[in-house]
Amino acid sequence: MPETTPEVAEPSRRQLRRAEQARRSEYGAWYPRWFWPSFAIPGVMWLIVFFVVPFYAVISVAFGTIDSFRNPLPVWQPWYWTNKYISGVLGHILGTDPYLRPTYIRTFMYVAIASTICLVVGYAVAYYTARHGGKYRTLILVALISPFWISYLMRMLAWVNLLSDDGYVNVILEKLHLISEPISWLSGKDITVVLGLVYGYIPYMILPLFGYLDRIQPSLLEAGRDLGASPAQTFWRVTLPLSKPAIYAGMVIVALPMFGDYYTNNLLSGSPNTTMIGNLIDGSVITAGQGPNGAVLVLILMVILLVPMVYYLRGTLKAQEAK
Amino acid sequence: MSTVSTPGGTRGFAGWLHNPWRKPRVLQWVTIGYLSWSILPVLIAILMSFNAGRSNTVFQTFGLRWWIDDPDQQALFQDPVLRRAIMQTYILSFVTMIVAVPLGVMFAIGIDRWRGRPANVANFAMLVTFVIPEIIIGLAMLLTVQHLFTFVKLGTFAQIAGLVTYQISYPVIIVRARLLSIGKEYEEAGMDLGASPRQSVRRVLLPLLYPAILASLAIVFADTVDDFVTVRYLSGPASSQPLSIFIYVTARASATPAVNAAATLMLVTTTVVIVLGYLGYRRVSRGQGGGDVSTFTQL
């Protein structure tokens, strides 16, 4: 090793200039302009090729036509688009031959009921874990997260097993003399599908609620109590208002996937009596000649989901900026 | 410590109702009920995979028949179709993880500091892939492969493209949360000490992000093992169908306990990955603050 290591290097003019720049501008002044964008570019390219372009493909198929083999024939140029399939499907929802309308109404009903059950049960569980978990808190938390790595299929399969005609649910109900012969839960029962949806998506409700409730300062609740509020009043007037953002976020985060769900329905019912929007879309993939209709159904679903999605994303973006 | 006495000496139901320190019994039972409702069915389904009979609804006797030892060669590890499906599950998950996590981590680092309209649009599009129902991504990719990128055949490659698109937002969200919590002081300190921008990212920022990257790897792998929506639409020949599709297709049709065995194998895989991820996370985040279960969950 040479012994000429300088004690303190004189700052070069360039370093001084950079330091000055950094002092003047609050962020990122040391970096070349292209520096941070270059990190994001690969991801941006990926999104363009595999997300934006596919979305345009959906639009092109929806506004396109079909060939003589009844395969969809997408039309890429907007000036050649036809709205034949769009108006066709919309006619079947809103117009004179509304055979698709029950499916849409049913989907809204299912989602509304299922998300409400998710909220009520989920709030109770999240509240208990956050406030009274005590020494079991970590254990309960692990149990609450476990559905995230137990596959959705496994969880549905479990219910298919339990609810089949000779399954344990019927066995227990017969033992208790509540029913005299097995109920076929898996052939088009509304309640089975709704409970299946609750079972599938309630974990997504509980975790944000828990995160919020856990962060509420106990001092706020104590202040409410000190000022003479009963426990119930403290809950209604302090805890509940404070957890409102989480309630809205949780409702959106469970409702969005429910609107696109077809597998819960297919696994737990498979009957046309419980068809949801997702089943229509899934069916269009399987059936020949239904390509454009499937694309139209996707666009309609996007329009339905636009408001909750933008609401949720604006909240997320605001939270990112606030930090 | 003295025990807390009921104020005012009220007794009975009214006293219980007005006692602010009473245990929330109802909530406790709701929680216990919810947890059993949530976990028990899965445990029963796992048990069924060890059924020696043909049924996956009524347990007869214990046996490994549907794992390794079926006379008709239909057990999970015997049937060549299922063995191929197991391989496909691991291939898809591994490749998706290897592609999605670096893309997502770099995107997160870039988008966190890149200001301006293009950055906002890209950020918004990324979040849309996170909240959009999966069926939309699956169908959009299917139509694209069928009509636009016709040089791509349905099968493994298309499946991976779709899976990466669906999964890429996880590393982005996890890494951004971590970036917010570490702030920019460490990098600035690094640059004050003479690091170039690139060095400050590689030698200061990246090590600080290891916990988040590890968590992303585990979550993306585990989530891809379970995926069947995107994967099913983009699957081509039978050899490109992973276990998840086998379960989805046979759960209602001719289901034997082999289906339960397949689901159990997936569960074991994801559990191992998540536990490894968690242990690694604790290891690399030692001395960085955080590292208990609740931080891991809030990622």
Can you offer a commentary on this structure?
The complex is a heterodimer of chains A (323) and B (299). Chain A contains 14 helices and two strands, in the order H-H-E-E-H-H-H-H-H-H-H-H-H-H-H-H. Chain A has helices spanning 13-24, 35-62, 84-94, 101-132, 137-145, 152-163, 168-175, 190-215, 218-226, 231-242, 244-259, 263-268, 277-286, 291-322, and strands at 65-66, 72-73. Chain A has a two-stranded antiparallel ribbon with strand order 1-2. The model of chain A has no long low-confidence stretch (mean pLDDT 85). In chain B, helix 2 crosses helix 13 (257-284) and helix 6 (134-147) packs antiparallel against helix 7 (156-167). The radius of gyration of chain B is 25 Å and the shape is globular. Chain B starts with 11 loop residues before the first helix and ends with a helix. The model of chain B is unreliable at 1-8 and 290-299 (pLDDT under 50). Chains A and B meet through helix 2, helix 4, helix 5, helix 6 and helix 8 of A and helix 2, helix 4, helix 5, helix 6 and helix 7 of B.
Question: Which properties best describe this structure?
Answer:
heterodimer, A: 323 residues, mainly alpha, two-stranded antiparallel ribbon, 14 helices, 2 strands, B: 299 residues, disordered N terminus
Radius of gyration of chain A: 28 Å
Tally the helices of chain A.
14
Q: Largest sheet of chain A, if any? A: 2 strands, antiparallel
Q: Average pLDDT value of chain A?
A: 85
- Per DSSP, the total helix count of chain B is 14
Estimate what percentage of residues of chain B fall within beta strands.
under 5%
Number of strands of chain A: 2
Helix content of chain B: 55-70%
The helix content of chain A, as a percent range, equals 55-70%
Strand arrangement, major sheet of chain A: 1-2
Q: Terminal Cα separation of chain B, in Å?
A: 38 Å
Unreliable spans of chain A are none
Mean pLDDT of chain B: 84
Topology order of chain A in helix (H) and strand (E) letters: HHEEHHHHHHHHHHHH
